[in-house]
Design a protein that fits this description.
Length: about 400
């Protein structure tokens, strides 16, 4: 009897895709669509065909076109709900499109026009209602037009205050309507504006602390966005975990220094993908793992299905590699030698008291002995390479 494939995903893995990801029509700035557009219900049915998917996420206008009539919106929602029922998929996350429509050409929450800022808040309120209708509990904010193309155009201090005002308003609306949303902010360094406000996740960690309801707001870091700027995504996610602010995560891949490629997760940066999986597993992240990516422009429908299956399979394989890493006696022995603890020093330097401070001032450190302690990182890194490449 054939052994079951342990890399086959199930809904328990909480893998999700967006209507805009598997529904991507293959258009780019230099060429038109290469795949036919799918209705929201058709995207859900495609994900049902993929198998093992937990949920599907949407921007408001992925589901309901911005100019749809009430009758059209009602029909689309009915068809979408029927597709969810057919496939068993959930809607864990929703978000607002505040970047595609021309009205947002100069931003949404940070537009120089008060009317545009107010409209952006109104649009988000309505989109929150739509997400709640389908059971979403995480609400993502990506400021795709929140920025400048010329520094002369905006006061960055005022823009930050406008953004904070919008978030405080929407937090209060969330409480008033009892939606129960957790808000997750998504950073990006550039594109489509020349310079985006809050370019990296760390920018948002500082911003959140000044909100009226900081407990409600966390992060939705994206692999590609931080990698574009040459930043280690693993370290970014580590900071979010340390701050207890990892509310959602976007998985994809990216080559540094390129445009926003949204490549299939694990297709480029094998080592970053491995250590990201290790970090989330070791620290017990239990939220959705959202693939914010799309198939190559050259892909047809069958290849889009392979793209979705491959995204999940890559994660499952990395899970297996993480288990191997954590059980590897040689690797764990090296780590035990590298990470050194000292109970006496932990006691006097871990928490401030006047007595601890005086004891630390009086402590005599042997700098030469500390310098001479081995750090076999080259050996450790090669063992990781061997493990990932499957020869260990």
């Amino acid at each position: 009897m054939a052994r079951p494939d342990r890399f086959v995903p199930t809904p328990k893995d909480k893998f999700t895709f967006g209507l805009w990801t598997v529904g991507n029509i293959g258009r780019d700035p230099f060429g038109g669509p290469t795949r036919p557009a799918l209705s929201p219900a058709e995207v859900v049915d495609l994900l049902g065909e993929v198998g093992g998917v937990y949920g599907v996420n949407f921007h408001d206008n992925d589901l309901i076109p911005i100019d749809a009539s009430e009758a059209q919106a009602g029909r689309i929602k009915q068809e979408f709900q029927a597709a969810l029922k057919r496939t068993g998929l959930k809607v864990p996350m929703a978000t607002t499109n505040l970047f595609s429509d021309p009205v947002f050409k100069d931003g949404a929450f940070t537009s120089n026009d008060r009317a545009v800022r107010a409209y952006a808040i109104q649009k988000t309120m309505k989109a929150m209602e739509l997400g709640a209708e389908f059971g979403a509990k995480v609400y993502v904010f990506w400021g795709g037009r929140e920025g400048t193309d010329t520094l002369a155009s905006k006061d960055p201090v005022q823009a930050a205050l406008w953004f904070r005002q919008a978030m405080d308003f929407l937090c209060e609306y969330n409480l008033d309507r009892k939606f129960g949303y957790k808000f997750a902010l998504e950073a990006k360094p550039n594109e489509p504006r020349g310079n985006l406000f809050f370019p990296v996740s760390g920018s948002y960690l500082g911003f959140i602390a000044g909100l009226k309801h900081p407990e409600m707001v966390g992060l939705n870091p994206e692999f590609a966005h931080e990698t574009m700027a040459g930043i280690s995504f693993v370290q970014v996610v580590g900071e979010a975990l340390a701050a207890k602010k990892l509310f959602h995560i976007d998985l994809n891949d990216q080559e540094p220094g390129r445009f926003d490629q949204d490549l299939r997760f694990g297709s480029v940066n094998y080592k970053q993908a491995f250590f990201l999986a290790k970090l989330l597993i070791d620290y017990g992240y239990s939220g959705p793992k959202h693939f914010d990516s799309h198939a190559y422009r050259s892909s047809d429908r069958a290849d889009v299905i392979e793209f979705a299956r491959g995204s999940m399979r890559s994660w499952k394989i990395l899970e297996d590699k993480v288990a191997q890493f954590n059980a590897d006696k040689e690797i764990q022995s090296l780590l035990a030698r590298i990470v050194r603890e000292d109970a006496a020093l932990a006691r006097i330097s871990g928490k401030f008291t006047k007595g601890n401070a005086q004891a630390l001032l009086n402590y005599s450190f042997d700098r030469q002995a500390m310098t001479d302690r081995p750090l076999p990182y080259e050996k450790l890194d090669q063992l990781v390479f061997d493990l990932i490449m499957g020869v260990r």
